[in-house]
């Protein structure tokens, strides 16, 4: 019964979680919601459960009296019907409570933007770190130059807040960011804003962007990609986003929490902050030593190779300390996108998070130590409290403390609650199976926090435990032959051959571990694909090395260093020695991962599952795991159907191409797909293209790697490009087009080509004669290590099966032009035309850049004509003459969420004028990316034109 209620609750909360992403359905559901429904359903469910318990025990008593294993006919039909009724009641009750939880959160959100003088209180450590580490002759940036932290905002009533805006009621939970790159004098003050302190600041608060009910064209539909920020903020109870525009440095002070819960939370967060500072201190010491070596190597001209390796070792040290910090406290503030991507490509990203074994390891060590002390100092206590119960209760206390220390992440929560329930069952002499304990824990967690059902960690954590339990019952069971082999190893006659016995034992353990990895990989594949859209090819093999290394070596030593760091006098010295050893080991481990990636051994495969495919996968999993539910022969036709569904979708794509357009206003990312051909089109639309490529946020006298630029590129790959490729099931690219001369885009393409095969690469501004990117800043170096481009210039064309891609602009002119004009003339406008044999063509024109010079030149040279779909960035002005020339039926403007990323007044006037002056028979519609998000268009010709 407990599993029935748990499954029904999961389904109910999943329904609400799905509705939260569909504003039209959410609005109607919330409007018709009545809190009384929850009370009525609760009472009905309680009555049904009591009746079920009574019938169940009555059935058992009648069976005992009749001495028959078969229940009475009435009970045989009554109990299943009542169970079905309880399932429906639980489903409705969980959905009702989920709606109530969501409505309460919606009502607490900031309604509109506001600029206020406020007091911000820190109740937890920051999500990111941005510090300058002093080196031997310069500084190195740790982090990306931005600080993000969830803070409690209390409006300063005595300040000069903008009275015309709606003032948020204090306190308000907000995700606050601060730009340290442009305001370096803020760094010292904000770095000391630890939990339990408050600061007077001036804030620009913005409401959280939510999906808006916007009608789309007939050939367009919304595209859900990558990271869902709104869902992430809801899971953390964040009510607004804000940016610090001014701080009062002298106002940094401590505050007294008003609630006991806040006091406990702040105490735990202060402990986490102190551990972070200890690891950062060790990192600063390491960087100082390495920078000294770099300077010495720089003075020694005979060691250029050592200079290069020394420079890369700085980034390696930061990433190794990021692993140590994450495994010790669950703090991921030092983990950059490059590190996360490296672990994802090799299939070990799950090791970056705190897991149940980490918690159990610490609990086991402490409980054994306490048991030893009790036996030595007070053995009489073991008479009243058996040693097994003592170990369990100490484990519960330590697991709870460690779970709080790591931020109470889902795996740590699961381990703590399972330990607590197991201990209580032993204390009360109640026999509970592991499966029932797991169901109780899952049921409690989702009712305490309904948003947990939308987190990948929840599903991966609980499904992994179920699979491990099942594995221990089936594949993990030792056969009679294996028992005979092990007994032979332990026999006295075999003790002489120690080496042979050791090899056989290791071989036996390795086979069991390999079976376990294959088992977990196969059965957890649907969940990984659903949430992440990509799978590592060699993940099984890398896990065989990574799991023992991180679990048995790094984690215990990391915990030991954290404990001894609190010892007086020698604590810091001992902890730095241990962390230095672990840093060296992790550097070697990361070097091995880099070799696997650079040689092409480690690659990712991109997949996407529809809701129908996910349901089929879950049904197949249930058939495989649960005996007697349904005949297992049904697995074969279901598997065939699972394979045929994507083949059917692929046949549809072979007939009509699709164009997916992203919603990133700075770098527009589009994907054109038809059958096996896929083109990735990139447009870097920074306001000052020449300066956008300059790493001006990190001023160093020595050649230290530009960490922030690498972080930005890795973030673009992981949050925008990889999810897009996974959603469209693209495993290789026919080509990549960079419409603007951009060093940033080129570096992105070079990293992409390492993981995804790319056949062709068109790069605007590429000088074929000198094999370099002809940007105005010759000091900016470019690299073509993975793929060599060809110049994207006017009249360049690709054609296949009725689909044609043509560059209608892009010139290399030997004229006396300014840097901005030269970059503008090299910008490529792309025309896409799809012409089926029996229909009219469908045209798409994709603009790029921020200058209207290419627009004027194409208009004069007559290289453009009427088009159906016109895509352009927000910072490119719209001219009435251009609209009259192209006559678009649909204008897709890639705007952003900020005011500076909207259309200018001249463009808005042009659109208003065109809407009035356009031909009466010509339809015209404008879509804005900040309102509709990412969109995918089907390039279907309209024969009614």
Report low-confidence residues grouped into runs of 5 or more.
24-31, 158-165, 475-495, 687-707
Look at the structure and give the mean pLDDT. 75
| Count of β-strands | 27
What general outline do the C-alpha atoms trace? globular
The number of distinct helices, counting runs of at least 4 residues, comes to 29
Largest sheet: 8 strands, mixed
Strand order, largest beta sheet: 7-27-12-13-14-15-16-19
- Radius of gyration over C-alpha positions, nearest whole angstrom: 31 Å
Distance between the termini: 61 Å
Strand residues, percent: 5-15%
Question: Which labels suit this protein?
Answer:
about 15% strand, 7-stranded mixed β-sheet, about 950 residues, single chain, alpha+beta, 27 strands
Produce the secondary structure layout:
Blueprint: H1 2-19, H2 23-31, H3 35-66, H4 73-107, E1 114-122, E2 131-134, E3 139-142, E4 146-155, E5 172-179, H5 187-191, E6 197-206, E7 220-222, H6 229-235, E8 240-247, E9 253-254, H7 260-299, H8 304-329, H9 337-345, H10 356-377, H11 381-384, H12 387-405, H13 410-427, H14 434-448, H15 456-473, H16 480-490, H17 498-532, E10 534-536, H18 539-564, H19 571-598, E11 604-606, H20 611-625, H21 635-655, E12 658-661, E13 667-674, E14 677-684, H22 689-692, H23 707-727, E15 733-738, H24 743-755, E16 758-763, E17 766-767, E18 772-773, E19 790-791, E20 797-800, E21 803-807, H25 819-826, E22 830-834, E23 842-846, H26 853-861, E24 869-873, H27 880-886, E25 890-894, H28 905-917, E26 925-928, H29 929-932, E27 935-938
Parallel strand pairs: 5-8, 14-15, 15-16, 16-19, 23-24, 24-25, 25-26
Antiparallel strand pairs: 1-4, 1-6, 2-3, 4-5, 6-8, 6-9, 7-27, 10-11, 12-13, 12-27, 13-14, 17-18, 20-21, 21-22, 22-23
